């Protein structure tokens, strides 16, 4: 009989969960002057990894963009946004948009 090593059996206990559910991402808001290379360097992560976890094709980033980050550099923890803060910021943004435009129907936008 073939026995699994302990580490494999522990990994198998998490079956049914997506990779995103197992990894606790932090988030980074891209600043003016940032580049993919700079961000990768800041968080000690590879550019291909950052692109992959954010479903990006190019190396282009823009100010205000939110990127998922796996932080390997604890010195930069203060630059990151947690899931709760990100959720709060998104709610405030949606509320602001709603106050600005009210309850518009798609036909109202088309003229």
Explain how this protein is built.
The protein is mostly helical and 111 residues long. The protein has a single domain, classed as LysM domain (Membrane-bound Lytic Murein Transglycosylase D, Chain A, Roll). Helix content is 44%, strand content 9%. The protein has six helices and three strands, in the order H-H-E-H-H-E-E-H-H. It has a three-stranded antiparallel sheet with strand order 2-1-3.
> How many distinct domains?
1
Q: How do the strands of the widest beta sheet line up side by side?
A: 2-1-3
Number of helices: 6
Fraction of helical residues: 40-55%
Largest sheet: 3 strands, antiparallel
Shape: globular
Distance between the termini: 71 Å
Rounded to an integer in angstroms, the radius of gyration calculated over CA atoms is 19 Å
CATH superfamily: LysM domain
- Going by helix content, strand content and strand pairing, the class is mainly alpha
Write the layout of secondary structure elements.
Elements: H1 6-12, H2 19-22, E1 26-29, H3 36-42, H4 47-53, E2 66-69, E3 80-81, H5 83-101, H6 106-110
Antiparallel strand pairs: 1-2, 1-3
In a few lines, what is going on in this structure?
The protein is 44% helix and 9% strand. It is mainly alpha-helical.
């Amino acid at each position: 009989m073939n026995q699994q090593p302990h580490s494999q059996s522990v990994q198998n206990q998490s079956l049914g969960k997506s990779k995103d559910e197992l990894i606790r991402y932090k988030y980074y808001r891209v600043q003016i002057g940032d580049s993919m290379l700079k961000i990768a360097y800041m968080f000690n992560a590879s550019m291909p990894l950052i692109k992959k976890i954010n479903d990006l094709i190019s190396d282009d980033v823009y100010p205000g963009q939110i990127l998922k980050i796996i932080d390997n550099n604890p010195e930069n923890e203060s630059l990151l946004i947690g899931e709760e803060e990100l959720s709060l910021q998104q709610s405030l943004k949606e509320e602001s948009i709603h106050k600005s435009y009210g309850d518009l129907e798609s036909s109202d936008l088309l003229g």
